[in-house]
From TrEMBL:
GO MF annotation terms: copper ion binding; primary methylamine oxidase activity; quinone binding
Identification of the protein by name: Amine oxidase
Region: Disordered, residue numbers: 1-27, 631-655
Reaction catalysed by this enzyme: a primary methyl amine + O2 + H2O = an aldehyde + H2O2 + NH4(+)
Family: Belongs to the copper/topaquinone oxidase family.
Entry's cofactor comment: Contains 1 topaquinone per subunit.
Residues in Copper amine oxidase catalytic domain copies: 290-705
EC number: 1.4.3.-
Domain Copper amine oxidase N3-terminal: start-end pairs: 133-226
Active site: D367 (proton acceptor), Y452 (schiff-base intermediate with substrate)
Modified residues (2',4',5'-topaquinone): Y452
Length: 737
């Protein structure tokens, strides 16, 4: 089937078979569409001529980054404070691909190198039995097709009043289900009915969940979640005898011990033309236009994937898995180019649901490792997703047949006003004031994971701050409820519509290079001093201070957040200290607004697979091998895992090793616990989660003192009578004197 089957995502399909183009400007530029096609052609040639494999399905094809020090040498970035860059060496461009034998289900990995103007196989490896590469967009779409055609599914739908053409399915990873072999490529299909062409299908959840074999193209099994009824004492009681999965040989409906439940049939639409059919719909007519105008153009420059904005410089790349990958982030500090981060990206997330009755516990999607944020990204619309003067970057990923799926406008780059940057007013008579407004650079992407949208905003500020904001929106994942059914693990957001409690837990990978590659992490707690009130050392009882701890061994690299002490972590370079504070230069990680405890039990299915979510912060030493450094906190191959794999952050910290003054990796866990509200239905207003990185003893003074205070000539009174238009304090200009 065509990869363009996902509306609003794929723009074009690159079919060229023999291209050898490698017109790159930066060693971290992602594979172009031409390169993906050429790499996949090279792999197919090798498979056809040198293996017994009859047919393959590509799942991933992406850049294998060069060694870190090689990249920094090529860019002229020093490894130590004030040092000289290493001498550049030749860089061989490499790609990595994962693919399946569609006959046997075996998985393979290949590394392909561009040498002598052609791509050649460097390594070709059959992966261990049961290893499952990333689930593709095509497989998610195929899941729906498989389910819609299945006679048993059609009959079960008809039994509750749904026609075959009204059946729709969201393909999900199976999560965790030991009843199925790991060697079978399995998905679960969450079913809904769609009553008209663009009807909001999530308003009509169905009461059974098929399990499908993606490669065989068939339904393997059908599960029926049990429901709740009120006991004589008014306590919710599950219809099934246990939350344990029933054996596959048992009749699943009998095991659930309940009758079939028709889906809710009331429409809850969100498209304007469908909303207009509702007599109660009354769109607002008092919203006046608000335009973002930059009459002289933008203040940033682009050279391919490399961006310069005021004093910031960085590389921006599309990643099929991470979505946005920011690399080689530096700041020009009055002529000294100071490195801050080598790479910054989202590398994993897990969404565990709270309902314990089977099969709902299988719903804990690893949206990065199982599907890929890049492959699920939207093509962005000018004037809707992004406002103002916009620059877009494209992205490309591989389709099953080796062609390249191109998303034309996948990464959005623009500037926006960010309120006041700094201000002070001398309140005395005749005093003056100064206000400087903040402008920030925004690098963003929107990803759709079935029902849900994630908006990723990376913000860069004029005072050296960096912020990652996650905005969550879209439609709640819902399940049908019986009439008047109690709902102990969710919210009944509409009649017969149950939105389960759940969490969104993200892992942010920081590859720091604060003034060089050798960094340390300091853990700081704010604590009252031990002297009691009335004592000689703390007579008023107000004293508090900070307690610093340098993390030294990898075995102590798994850290908890402590709200009682407002714990914070700082990435420092011990080789350089601030001229006045005497402290090591560094960047502080701000997680207070985003730190979230993982609610599932630590020995449960979700926490066992997503060990990264058990701690707020992980610090490990980076170790590079021929396939790059340590990357994925839940392992490279995530679908259908049943434990914390050896190549995961939970296992890396168990090995002893020095993490003081080393080339480090820091994994930050942030998130939110979502207790759905009726106001989240039918489409959820955005919810915000924010993570910050702030310089601490890094700059001599406030680095934004050189930002001019400019009074906007386009601003004016809201009303013609001029009310509320006082010009500054004591008649002085509010922006610049």
């Amino acid at each position: 089937m065509s990869p363009t089957a996902t509306p609003g995502t794929a723009t074009t399909i690159q079919k060229t078979q023999h291209s050898t183009k490698t017109n790159i400007q930066h060693p971290l530029d992602p594979l172009s569409a031409d390169e993906i096609v050429a790499v996949s052609f090279c792999v197919r040639q090798h498979v056809a001529s040198k293996t017994p494999v009859k047919a393959i399905q590509f799942n991933t094809c992406y850049l294998l980054p060069p060694p870190k020090k090689t990249v920094l040498a090529a860019l002229g970035i020093a490894l130590t404070p004030g040092g000289k860059p290493e001498a550049p060496t030749a860089i061989i461009r490499k790609a990595e691909a994962d693919f399946l034998d569609v006959v046997t289900g075996d998985a393979y990995n290949a590394v392909i190198a561009f040498k002598d103007a052609k791509w050649t196989i460097e390594t070709f490896e059959k992966l261990p039995e049961g290893t499952q590469p990333q689930i593709s967009v095509q497989e998610l779409i195929q899941c729906e097709e498989i389910v819609k055609k299945d006679p048993t599914v059609q009959k079960l739908a008809k039994d509750v009043g749904i026609l075959p053409e009204q059946i729709f399915a969201d393909g999900w990873s199976i999560g965790y289900d030991v009843r199925f072999s790991q060697s079978i490529r399995v998905q679960q299909a969450l079913l809904f009915a769609r009553l008209s062409e663009h009807d909001n299908l999530y308003a009509h959840p169905m009461d059974f969940i098929p399990v499908i074999d993606s490669l065989a193209g068939k339904v393997l099994h059908i599960d029926y979640p049990p429901h709740y009824k009120l006991s004589a004492k008014g306590i919710p009681v599950l219809t099934a005898s246990s939350t344990k999965p029933p054996p596959l040989l048992d009749d699943a409906l009998t095991a659930s011990n309940r009758e079939r439940i028709p889906p809710p049939m009331k429409s809850f639409d969100f498209l304007p033309d469908l909303l207009a059919k509702d007599p109660e719909y009354n769109p607002r007519d008092d919203v006046k236009p608000l335009h973002v105008v930059q009459p002289e153009g933008v203040s940033f420059k682009m050279n391919g994937h490399e961006l310069e904005w005021q004093k910031w410089k960085m590389h921006i790349a599309f990643s099929h898995r991470e979505g946005i990958a920011l690399s080689t982030i530096t700041y020009d500090d009055n002529g000294e180019v100071r490195p801050i981060f080598y790479r910054l990206s989202l590398v994993e997330m897990v969404v565990p649901y709270a309902a314990p009755e089977f099969p709902h516990p299988r719903k804990f999607a690893f949206d990065v490792g199982e599907y890929g944020m890049g492959t699920m990204a939207n093509e962005l619309s000018l004037g809707c997703d992004c406002l103002g003067q916009i620059h877009y970057l494209p992205g490309a990923y591989v389709a099953h047949d080796g062609s390249a799926v191109v998303i034309k406008n996948v990464i959005c780059i623009h500037e926006e006003d960010a309120g006041i940057l700094w201000k002070h007013t001398d309140y005395r008579p005749g005093g003056r004031s100064q206000t400087v407004r903040s402008r920030r650079l925004v690098i963003s992407m929107v990803c759709t994971l079935a029902n849900y949208e994630y908006i990723w905003n990376y913000y860069f500020y004029q005072d050296g701050n960096i912020e990652l904001e996650v905005r969550l929106t879209g439609i709640l994942q819902v399940y049908c409820a019986d009439v008047d059914e109690p709902n102990p693990f969710g919210t009944t957001v509409a009649p017969k519509t149950n939105a389960h409690y759940h969490q969104h837990i993200f892992s942010i990978r920081v590859d720091p290079m604060v003034d060089g590659l050798n960094n340390s992490v300091i853990e700081s707690d704010v604590v009252p001093i031990p002297d009691g009130t009335g004592s000689a050392g703390n007579f008023a009882g107000n004293g508090f201070t900070i307690q610093d701890k340098v993390l030294k061994d990898q075995s102590e690299g798994a850290r908890d957040y402590n709200f009682d002490t407002e714990r914070r972590w700082k990435i420092i370079n011990p080789a350089r200290k601030h001229y006045s504070s005497g402290r090591e230069v560094g960047y502080v990680i701000g997680v207070k607004a985003a730190s979230t405890r993982l609610m599932p039990r630590e020995d449960g299915w979700a926490a066992t697979r997503a060990a990264f979510a058990k701690k707020a912060l992980w610090v490990i030493k980076d170790v590079e091998d021929p396939k790059g450094g340590r990357m994925w906190p839940s392992g490279k191959y995530v679908p259908q895992t049943r434990e914390d794999p050896q190549d995961s952050v939970g296992q890396w910290v168990k090995s002893p090793g020095n993490i003081e003054n080393e080339d480090l990796l820091v994994y930050i866990t942030v998130g939110t616990t979502h207790i759905p509200r009726p106001e989240d239905w039918p489409v959820m207003p955005v919810q915000h989660t924010r993570l910050t990185f702030k310089p601490n003893s890094f700059f001599k003074v406030n680095p934004s003192m050189d930002v001019p205070g400019i009074k906007d000539s386009h601003s004016g009174p809201a009303f013609h009578n001029g009310a509320g238009t006082a010009n500054g304090v004591n008649g002085q200009s509010c922006c610049s004197d």
